[in-house]
Amino acid sequence: MTGLESPVALLEAWRGVTVPLREEMRAYETWFAEEGIAASADVDRQGTPGLRMHDRFGRPEDRVLYGPVYRRMLERGYATGIVARAVDEQALLPGYQLGYVTSFFDPGLYCPYTVSLGTVLALYKYGTPALVQRFLPALTRRDAGVWQGATWMTEAGGGSDLGHQVRTTARCEGDRWYLTGDKYFCSNVDAELAVVAARPSGAASGVRGLALFLVPRWREDGGLNYRIVRLKDKIATRSVPTGEVRFADSEAWLLGREETGIYQIMEVLNASRVANSIGAVALIQRALAEASSFARGREVFGRPLAQQPLFRRQFAEWQEELRGGFALAWEAADQLEQVWRQEPPYSAAYHRFRLLAHLAKFRTAEQAVAAAQWAMEAHGGAGVLYEYPPERLLREAMILGIWEGTPHRQILDGVEVMARNRAHEALFAHLGEPEGADALRARIEVLLAASADEREAGAEALFRELASWVGGVLTRLRLPRGESGTQ
């Protein structure tokens, strides 16, 4: 496979990949093309799996009833080191590159790897030596015995306002904590370990009173540590089980310090936002590949659709959108690679990364939906049929705007890091003060000087323009000229 049909070819053309990793990614891509893509389609068609809550003797079990094809598909990614490399190589970029390949074929499948990475990073950075020794080896295996992670923050009231909506409580007895409460949107619900946001007894209200805890699936006595209340039917992403979880004096360990819990929580979310952006761009590439393939074979008005002037113009515009989203998402990943080891208080470079992560997540999630819709329209009636890829691509794209914070959340958090930490100044300097920076800077300052309500109401248009502008600048600075890799 070449060009748009190959995520590895695009990564090579636009980023360059080290030889050992390139060979592993090529093997992973070949496996998907020959076996994994069919397995992924089977999992999607089967819909939401069953949940067996008790074994035949009536003992609590809470087993998600995926078939063996799902587990083999899942284990194939872990075998590449998509999670383990973060610790083994002290680098996040190799895992993100493998995630790009995964998302090209199955965006939902990237979710288990993403939340497992978030669990690994939180444990690795903030766990005690005893906790790291006990749990990290299982999370970084590359065989069938690998443990999975999960990141559970959201409760029934919503996920954007964690300070108000997190009602799960934590009480301390010695070095052990016990959690009580309900989590409403728990992706990768059958993971062996989860990092969970909760409020310690007596802690302050708001986000400053939250802390991050490591919660294993099983108690030390071997019993279930929490219960899966139910699984959720979702528009897509059926290759990751999502459910509701109930904690009742569930054993847990504190990660980091109580007073810095919100920072640990946001580190987990920001690493996942980068993954979300990378997954969105991979979906855009897949959408364009499907549209291009169809257009070359579909004849209308005496010649292939691919030769029709309107289609050619639209396709060229989407290639440029792909370039801008690619440059923005990977710049966020590159910046995270430089700062992920930092702990609070953070440097100016970390706040610059935060702004980039919000911009990338905001823009690429919107682009993914629009690209999938365009690919569906390019297919005409075939695009809405369950049996062809565009229908699923649109379903998969729809959730990218929700995961790890809605577009509203990215806008508000992006404006906050500009107001509090002057992250836009660090970003403009990092980009070399390109043309247009002064005009945007002036508009940002006007926005930041406005009242809180006026600032929020007026933020969206400027944030969208900033995301597009940064993507364009990064395309010129970081990507090769022309359409290399997208023919």
How would you describe the overall organization of this protein?
- The longest helix is centred in the middle third of the chain and has 37 residues.
- The radius of gyration is 22 Å and the shape is globular.
- The protein has three domains: 137 residues, Butyryl-Coa Dehydrogenase, subunit A, domain 1 (Orthogonal Bundle), CATH 1.10.540.10; 109 residues, Butyryl-CoA Dehydrogenase, subunit A, domain 2 (Beta Barrel), CATH 2.40.110.20; 217 residues, Up-down Bundle (Butyryl-CoA Dehydrogenase, subunit A, domain 3).
- The protein is of the alpha+beta class and 487 residues long.
- It has a five-stranded mixed barrel. The chain has a two-stranded antiparallel sheet with strand order 1-2. A two-stranded antiparallel sheet has the order 10-11.
- Helix 6 runs antiparallel to helix 7 and helix 11 runs antiparallel to helix 13.
- Helices cover 55% and strands 14% of the residues.
- Strand 10 and strand 11 form a beta hairpin.
Secondary-structure element order, N to C:
HHEEHHHHHEHEEEEEEHEEHHHHHHH
Give the number of domains.
3
Radius of gyration, taken over Cα atoms and rounded to an integer in Å: 22 Å
Query: Which CATH C-level class of the largest domain is it?
Result: Mainly Alpha
The helix content, as a percent range, equals 55-70%
Strand content: 5-15%
Instruction: List the total number of helices.
Output: 16
How far apart the termini lie comes to 11 Å
Biggest sheet, spatial arrangement of strands: 4-5-9-7-6
Low-confidence stretches are 483-487
From the spread of the alpha carbons, the general shape counts as: globular
Examine the secondary-structure arrangement and name the CATH architecture of the largest domain: Up-down Bundle
Q: Quick check: average pLDDT?
A: 95
| Number of beta-strand segments | 11
What's the main sheet like?
5 strands, mixed, barrel
Determine the CATH superfamily of the largest domain.
Butyryl-CoA Dehydrogenase, subunit A, domain 3
The helix-and-strand class reads alpha+beta
